[in-house]
Amino acid sequence: MIPQAAPPQRIARFRREIDAAVASVLSGTSYILGSAVASFETAFARYNGSSHCIGVASGTDALALALRALGIGPGDEVILPALTFAGSAQAILHCGAQPKFVEVDPRTRCIDPAAVADAINGRSAAIVPVHLFGHPCDMPALMALADRHQLVVVEDCAQSHGATLDGRSLGTFGHAAAYSFYPTKNLGCIGDGGAIVTSDPGLADRLRSLRNYGFAPGERISRTLGFNARLDELQAAILLTLLPHLEASNTERRTIASHYRARLEHCPALGLPPDLEGCVYHQFALTYRDRDGLMAHLAASGIGSAIHYNPGLHRHPAFLGCEASSLHATDALSETLLSLPIQPEIAKGAVDRIADAVLAFVEADSR
Ligand SMILES: Cc1ncc(COP(=O)(O)O)c(C=O)c1O
Q1: pLDDT tens readout for residues 329-367
Q2: What domain range includes position 194?
Q3: In this predicted structure, what is the pLDDT of residue 136?
Q4: Residue spans of alpha helices (H) in the chain
Q5: Does the CB atom of residue 88 touch ligand 1 within 6 A?
Q6: Residue 182: CB within 6 Å of ligand 1?
Q7: Inside any domain, residue 1
């Protein structure tokens, strides 16, 4: 069986280094907010081209804390795409604000700036662009809108570690950016983890306090209502070990994506992801009208695949009260997107077998 994703295979690849990192935490002096978290924050901020990194407990916490620290709360609307993971919208509700779901560009599958422009009203306070599947959103257009309407922008970089747009790192366009280190991510730990990056020193200070009960540095007095939302030392030590391998791993993902493209692009029934420079292919998601049939055929051929995301968030019971325009492109993508294996440890030598299976199904289906 070729799994769609298998974090343990990545851990196995770097096991010796990871064992040493874990051992050093075990024999260290602090298990919470110690030297591993501090070292990872410094390294990840530098890697991302941001001045500050604040390690937190998950990507959802990263989004929620960033929005809250930027002053988003009750009465505010936050504009985001409906084609994303539930955490993007849950974070907004946790701040007391209202998600407003808008359409994606069917080509990039990322938030459509024209739809954002249409959605802006007097209650709009923030935009959360999601760099879905590692594809960059149109950040210049979104930042121009944000500047014109004085909106805060928190980039959801949960799927875009290392991605760039015109040579500039994603996560440096908005006021802050939220990362997830969930095990399947391009940079993933062995549990939950997340981080916020920003180049605003005041925001960074507020976030360090918010993740730790509202304490000021060196104190145990709650200055504001905070959370226990800290990245832990073990996860930080593992992330610090894996970070130097991220660029090479993203290059492997791009090579695998090119291989898929070469094998599948002649088939007009398949909708391939856009060939965008700077993309890090968190997923390689294609569209096919009988997506469920293709998925079943791949499973019968011993190939895992996954659906990201069906339905769109505007159809989840928890978000039914939230405003949404009519989202035809989102609905069409939700019904047809299928993510093939792209994690290098799984997909490197398997692209031809997977592409053969996809083409066999599509050819039989068109007869
Ligand atoms: C686009 C997106 N946003 C937010 C999240 C939430 O991250 P986490 O699962 O670490 O809370 C995820 C990941 O799972 C994600 O893919």
Answers
A1: 999 999 999 999 999 999 999 999 999 999 999 999 988
A2: 7-99+111-244
A3: 98
A4: 7-13, 15-26, 35-48, 59-69, 86-94, 113-119, 139-149, 201-210, 233-242, 246-264, 291-300, 328-336, 344-347, 351-366
A5: yes
A6: yes
A7: no
Tell which one of 56, 128, 180 to mutate to probe ligand 1, the residue whose CB is within 8 A of the most ligand atoms. Answer: 180
352 CA to centre of ligand 1 in angstroms: 30
Say whether both 73 and 202 belong to one domain.
yes
- Cβ(159) to ligand 1 under 6 A? yes
Total length of the chain: 367
Ligand 1 geometric centre to CA of 154 (Å): 14
Considering the domain architecture, whether residues 143 and 222 belong to the same structural domain is answered as yes
**Residues 301, 314 within the same domain:** yes
First to last CA, the chain: 28
DSSP label of 162: T
Q: pLDDT tens, 48-103?
A: 999 999 999 999 999 999 999 999 999 999 999 999 999 999 999 999 999 999 99
* Whether 230 and 187 share a structural domain: yes
Closest ligand 1 atom to residue 180 Cα is: 10
Q: Are residues 301 and 202 in the same domain?
A: no
Check if 192 has its Cβ closer than 6 Å to any atom of ligand 1. Answer: yes
Same domain, 88 and 144: yes
The count of domains in the chain is 2
